[in-house]
Design a protein that fits this description.
Blueprint lengths: L13 E5 H9 L11 H10 L5 E5 L2 E5 L3 E5 L3 H5 L4 H13 L3 E7 L4 E6 L2 H5 L14 E5 H14 L6 H10 L1 E2 L13 E2 L12 H8 L3 H13 L3 E6 L5 E5 L2 H6 L3 H6 L1 H11 L10 E8 L9 E11 L13 E8 L3 H4 L9 H7 L1
Antiparallel strand pairs: 1-7, 2-3, 4-6, 5-6, 8-9, 10-11, 10-14, 12-13, 13-14
Helix pairs in contact: 8-9
Length: 359
């Protein structure tokens, strides 16, 4: 699978979200979803909404779904929204409905069948230059940035902004930029970039703590955890200017290439982005590069082949025994692509998860 649009610009009003990557968080509880923003939960509903009209059969009964709608059992909502009970799920649906994000109705109270409709679906998710139809559980879906900003505004007004761990992951994905000439380094790798960063994708714990409503120590622990699970990769520098954060699997969504091909360009990307941030000079002859690989951690998203570390040193001639301090430090997981991800637009093979989605 690959996208026809090879860019994600700051000015784009919508963001593509890789469905197989997103579905992992519906079925695994490694990251918590307890916050006031509810970004992940709303994105989950967008991911299930139909791109076109569809007839749905549940327990022998037939229901029609229009674009932007989805019908499910109430019992499925806690897993989709990542809450603990049906009561919490319905309360969250009421919250979204009261603030104009969607409408929902109970079609059959005895069988607990619910249908929701995303507000302004035609405006948000059709007539895009870079869209194509994708099947349930494969391809990608779109999430509009104005809706995300409205979620933040609503939370700030009512109870204050506190992101959950899943909200923070989605926030970084939604603000990932690629091949934007206004964002330095985005031509080398997908970078997390917020609109007030003045073209330089350097993030500090202080900035993220203020944005997410966390402490700096919590941000630090979260970044380490996200890196271990293969959600983010970081390019860190010897100075205290901040780090460049890149979302894993974003590149595969855009280009659809295998990991072996991607690995060949990693070193060039790290050198390129370091030059873009003005950390290293243009003369490559003064640089020493160290590449290390090891067995990946047990808990990762997808099937990681190995853990990859790249360090860039400045060659110092004064002392042979002097301990080198890396100018740039990069760590990430190298990925293996499944057969389903390699196929471009074929419907996904029937699996236990696929059967569960249809039921």
């Amino acid at each position: 699978m690959s996208c026809t649009q090879k860019q994600q610009l700051v000015c784009f009003p919508k963001v593509r979200v890789y469905k197989p990557w997103f579905r992992h968080f519906n079925d695994h509880k490694d990251f918590r979803n307890e916050g006031t923003v509810h970004l992940f939960s709303l994105m989950a509903l967008f991911s299930y909404a139909n791109f076109r009209s569809n007839e749905r059969v549940i327990n022998g009964d037939r229901y029609m779904e229009a674009p932007g709608q989805w019908i499910c059992k109430i019992g499925a909502l806690p897993r989709i929204l990542r809450v603990h009970s049906k009561t919490q799920a319905l309360e969250l649906m009421e919250y979204f409905q009261n603030h104009g994000f969607l409408t929902f109705e109970i079609l059959d109270e005895e069988k607990e069948i619910l249908r929701f409709t995303i507000a302004d679906w035609k405006e948000h998710c059709t007539h895009l230059q870079y869209n194509y139809y994708s099947y349930k559980g494969s391809g990608f879906f779109f999430f509009p940035l104005p809706v995300g900003r409205l979620l933040l505004k609503t939370a700030r007004k009512e109870v204050g902004i506190v992101f959950s761990e899943l909200d923070a992951i989605m926030d970084m994905w939604l603000h990932t930029i690629l091949n934007d000439p206004k964002v330095r380094g985005s031509e080398y790798m997908p970078v997390v970039y917020y609109s007030n960063m003045r073209g330089m994708p350097l993030l500090s714990y202080t900035y993220l703590a203020r944005r997410w409503g966390w402490s700096k120590s919590r941000v630090g622990r979260f970044m380490l955890k996200a890196g271990e699970y293969g959600i983010i990769s970081r390019v860190s520098f010897s100075s205290s200017r901040g780090s460049v954060i890149s979302m894993c699997r974003y590149r595969e969504m855009i280009y659809g290439e295998g990991c072996e091909e991607l690995e060949l360009s990693r070193i060039g990307e790290i050198i390129g982005i370091a030059k873009a941030i003005d950390v290293v000079e243009a003369d490559d002859s003064k640089l020493d590069i160290s590449v290390e690989s090891r067995v990946p951690p047990e808990k990762t998203i997808g099937r990681a082949r190995k853990s990859l570390k790249i360090q860039v040193f400045l060659v110092v001639r004064s002392s042979f025994f002097a301990r080198q301090i890396p100018l740039v430090f990069y760590s990430s997981l190298d990925w293996e692509m499944s057969e389903q991800e390699k196929s471009s637009r074929d419907p996904p093979k029937e699996s236990t998860l696929g059967k569960e989605m249809k039921s």
